[in-house]
Amino acid sequence: MSDASWRPPTDDPFVRLTDEGRLADAIRERSEERDLRQQQSEFATFTGTMRDLAEAGRSVTVRSGSGRSYQGTLLAVAVDHLVLTAGTDRRIHIAVDQITSVQLDPTSTSVVAAGEREAAQDRTLGEVLADAVEERPVVVLVTRGDGEAHRGQLLAVGEDVITLRAEGAGARYLPSSALSEVVIER
Prior knowledge:
Blueprint: H1 13-42, H2 46-55, E1 59-64, E2 69-77, E3 81-86, E4 90-95, E5 99-104, H3 125-132, E6 138-143, E7 149-157, E8 161-166, E9 171-175, E10 179-185
Antiparallel strand pairs: 1-2, 1-5, 2-3, 3-4, 4-10, 6-7, 6-10, 7-8, 8-9
């Protein structure tokens, strides 16, 4: 048998029909995925997106209204703040209403905001400090407006006041409502 006698196979209508069906299924699946991604991004919330990032353990840089930037792993989303961990000895709590931006690690792939869930933790900044007071940790408390950082040992947490032994000074009293950022050093 010579190569000159070879001819392509005849068109099989059943094969063509099967191929067209597979192609249509693939197009429909891609269209549905695109529609779902678009719908998720349209209903995205800041809290839900941050919760998705926290559950994925993403590295982020959070910029606050005080002008400070904090780099670390997004650990949790609470009612009124985000929690970052920076190394093994620092937890950073930033009031959500003081956050100006959250940036993913530049080496990570771009992700469109898509979460629409509620906060995972129902703790407030005040409750975080109240839980930590027994250990008498060194803290940095940043206040709203002036962005001043108050560093010292946490002594007490009252209903609406925080008592701090400031380094190089005596006791300092801060209203809980003035807190923008809390860094707990362990």
